From TrEMBL:
Record has Membrane as a keyword: no
Name the record gives this protein: HAT C-terminal dimerisation domain-containing protein
Any one Gene Ontology cellular component term annotated for this protein: nucleus
One Pfam short name: hAT-like_RNase-H
GO molecular function, one term: zinc ion binding
Family matches, as PANTHER family: ZINC FINGER BED DOMAIN-CONTAINING PROTEIN 39, ZINC FINGER BED DOMAIN-CONTAINING PROTEIN 4
């Protein structure tokens, strides 16, 4: 996959739907992209949403009459859910973070903390910065604190007369046991060089499993209630495009999708799900996505029907374990073979029965798989190219605003708008050439082991 910043324009007008539309229209026309847009992703700002109808009209006939044209940023929704939960906790986490702030604010105290750990042969790990616009910065901060739960309270009491007892740490640890699922989803949705739409259903199943597991747990049940309420505001019905993307991942396909819907809705609503007096039937949701999948195939077949016919032979191999957590357990229960559905579309029937071999924990490249199967599944390969290239979040876009903030500072404000756009675009294209655009989005696994101060540049949940 590729990502490029094409424009970074000055926007001095009021951020109304009309002005947003005019600016985007100008850029699409400039780059001759008006008839080449599959979907547009926005955050949850009202004016952004209000601009969608005119943008859909501008881009002309789109896939299935524009049904998938507007997509909401999943990371923003996760951020809203977690923020609601953290607010419900009140001061529960503030006591712990207050002790860490004392370390940040006092250089002498920080030095004593390092020496304190050194005397006990404990490795020093810097506390990451706690950024208000990034909920998972608090999560990462508390994770480091938990590593020092046997040392940090005693140190604060001895050197700073600050009371942080084991109960505070235990509370933070319980909260982190929940937040890890949201952090994993945020990072999964923030990739640049591999598709995220096919992983959306997997992460939602894991989140549903987390809600189900912790809804009656001591203390965190209250915390989860607020997050669950906000979560279902947006995902009481899963966007159908992500069900189609799930089907287009050869590891999952149709039969596993049905299992996912059943597990997801039963986790929230039980065996007889009801929401706002309207029944939510997992089977109906599955049937709707399945029908849309076939309709989308027919639309692509009409457009790309002159492709070479697929070969009749298929490859066969045994599937191996690949998944963990709630989604992993669900996949283990699913059948490893797929029965052929009654359909006159031979290519889909062939795909449903096509067995794929995986190695456990293998980093599967779904686009590479489809590239290698273009002759076998020509129409489905075109579908996959479009659907899987659609990002789940706007994280990569927001990173450019952070980059602009690093260019324009209080001591460097004389750059023209055109110069700033040139710098931002050139910097992004240079990183694209080096394939390093993702490094500033997803922190490395060694982030928590760094022994230098400074905050994460991860922007997965920026408002």
């Amino acid at each position: 996959m590729h990502k490029r910043v094409l424009a970074f324009r000055e926007f001095n007008d009021r951020h109304t739907a009309e002005h947003i539309y005019i600016l985007i229209e100008r850029i699409l026309i400039e780059y001759n992209l008006v008839n080449k847009v599959f979907a547009i992703g926005f955050d949850n700002a009202t004016n952004n949403t209000a601009a969608i109808p005119r943008l859909r009209e501008l881009c002309g006939p789109t896939t299935l009459m524009g049904r998938f044209f507007h997509q909401r940023c999943a990371c923003h929704i996760i951020n809203l859910c977690v923020q609601d939960g953290l607010k419900a906790l009140g001061d529960a986490m503030e006591v712990a973070k207050g002790g860490i702030r004392r370390i940040w604010a006092n250089g002498q105290l920080k030095l004593k903390w390092k020496n304190y750990l050194n005397e006990r042969n404990v490795k020093y790990v810097a506390f990451p910065k706690d950024l208000s616009i990034r909920w998972n910065s608090s999560y990462k901060l508390i994770r480091v604190l938990i590593r020092y739960k046997e040392h940090f309270p005693a140190f604060l009491k001895e050197y700073d007369n600050y009371i942080l007892n084991s109960a505070h740490i235990d509370t933070c640890e319980k909260i982190c046991n929940v937040l890890i699922f949201f952090n994993n989803a945020t990072e999964s949705f923030s990739h640049v060089y591999k598709p995220t739409s096919n992983e959306f259903m997997r992460e939602l199943v894991n989140l549903a499993g987390a809600f189900n597991e912790f809804q009656n747990a001591d203390y965190v049940s209250y915390f989860c209630t607020f997050m669950k309420e906000k979560f279902l505001k947006y995902y009481s019905h899963i966007p159908h495009i992500y069900g189609i993307a799930f089907i287009l991942d050869p590891r999952y396909r149709l039969s596993n999708l049905e299992q996912c819907y059943k597990f997801y809705y039963q986790s929230f609503y039980g065996d007889f799900p009801m929401y706002e007096d309207n029944p939510i039937d997992p089977q109906s949701e599955y049937n709707e996505v399945s029908s849309l999948f076939y309709s989308l195939f027919n639309e692509f077949r009409a457009q790309y029907g002159n492709m070479p016919p697929p070969p009749t032979q298929t490859s066969s191999s045994k599937g191996k374990g690949l998944f963990k957590s709630a989604f992993g357990n669900l996949m283990k229960k699913a059948k490893t073979t797929h029965t052929t559905e009654q359909s006159t579309i031979n290519e889909i029937a062939l795909y449903i029965n096509y067995e794929v071999e995986f190695v456990e924990n293998e980093d599967f490249d779904v686009l590479k798989w489809w590239k290698s199967k273009e002759r076998t599944f020509p129409i489905l390969a075109w579908m996959a190219k479009q659907v899987l290239s659609m990002p789940v979040s706007t994280v990569a876009v927001e990173q450019e605003f952070s980059s602009a903030g690093n260019v324009l500072t209080k001591s460097r404000t004389c750059l023209s708008a055109e110069s700033l756009e040139t710098l931002i675009c050139y910097h992004d294209w240079l990183k694209a050439r080096r394939r390093t655009q993702e490094l500033s989005l997803i922190p490395s696994q060694d982030f928590m082991d760094e022994s230098t101060d400074g905050g994460s540049t991860y922007a997965g949940d920026s408002d």
